[in-house]
# Entry
Amino acid sequence: MNKEEAAKKGVFEAEVLSNQPIRQCYYRLNLQFDVKGSALFKDVIPGQFLELDLSSVSLPPHFHIPPHLKESAEKQVFLRRPFSFSDVINSGSKGDCVKVEILYCVLGPATVRMMTLKAKDRISVIGPLGNGFSIPEGISRAVLMAGGMGAPPILHLASYLKKNYPACSVVSFVGARTCEDLPFTVRIGNVKGLVLDEFESIQVPSFIATDDGSAGYRGFVTDHTRQWLQKNTVEPAQTVLYACGPEPMLAGAARLADDFSLPCQVSMERMMGCGIGLCQSCAVEVKTAALDTKYQLCCKEGPVFDARRVVFQAD
Ligand SMILES: Cc1cc2nc3c(=O)[nH]c(=O)nc-3n(C[C@H](O)[C@H](O)[C@H](O)COP(=O)(O)OP(=O)(O)OC[C@H]3O[C@@H](n4cnc5c(N)ncnc54)[C@H](O)[C@@H]3O)c2cc1C
Ligand code: FES
# Structure
């Protein structure tokens, strides 16, 4: 998709197909878009996102609201909220039936309300927004890294690569504080130990890292990936490191890429007001060719950036 096509976005309606808890505060929301939305989303790229209008969705019963959110849940939700997709399925022959899957974490007034969405509910969507991950010609290996709620676009990227770049070998690393914080279905596999169903089902090997060692490697996902890169031969000219997660993790991914001379793309998160480049609330500091820095909008020029250009706040 060229830049002009990627810039096409619109407001449309989506119907809720299902909304189910996965674990802890994590839910999986499946939406089907109307004809307009399907046409806009049929060529969507992993890393792009949408904004949902949750202002008129009601709160769950008081007892169903997580105790630490009971107060903040009462706040009104004026602004739309940004979400990536973990999967996009186009089942219509003319691109007229697009379904997307959103993995979300309940952590405030909008996402508390999302818990109450049920089949046949309708919500307003704006999208697709932002620029997604780019796949260079000749890529033969993609190393994917996700931290916490950075998982959805990485999962989407994994299936996108498997489908559209079958010659590219894909491996994924997923990190969280504890096993319970992994936004995936974790299963004990027969041979390989812990298995993330979502990656296993698309034949992408996945490695887990948790800060407390409750699942997989004990430590940061960046360290786990570093060990793997030390043990495996990768061809820098044909390999890309893709990462999405908290900013310190993305800064770590950038250092890792630098150490192994790999190109690296990071999907950044910023608080977003409008999502379409109007409110200026989502600035990311980037380096310029003149060794200076400037600000770019995460919602418009991002959320995916070349890691070498980003001035990470965590650095
Ligand atoms: C491009 C993009 C893609 C996203 N994709 C997903 C996704 O796939 N799944 C998902 O669960 N969430 C995703 N998010 C985050 C999601 O938008 C927020 O969790 C949501 O807006 C929270 O709304 P709320 O009213 O429930 O909580 P709020 O009250 O708005 O926020 C609760 C807490 O989370 C923090 N927070 C909220 N949004 C962000 C942010 N963007 N960056 C840093 N801190 C934040 C706030 O500071 C606050 O402490 C994405 C954000 C962006 C910018
Ligand atoms: S969210 Fe308003 S300019 Fe980016």
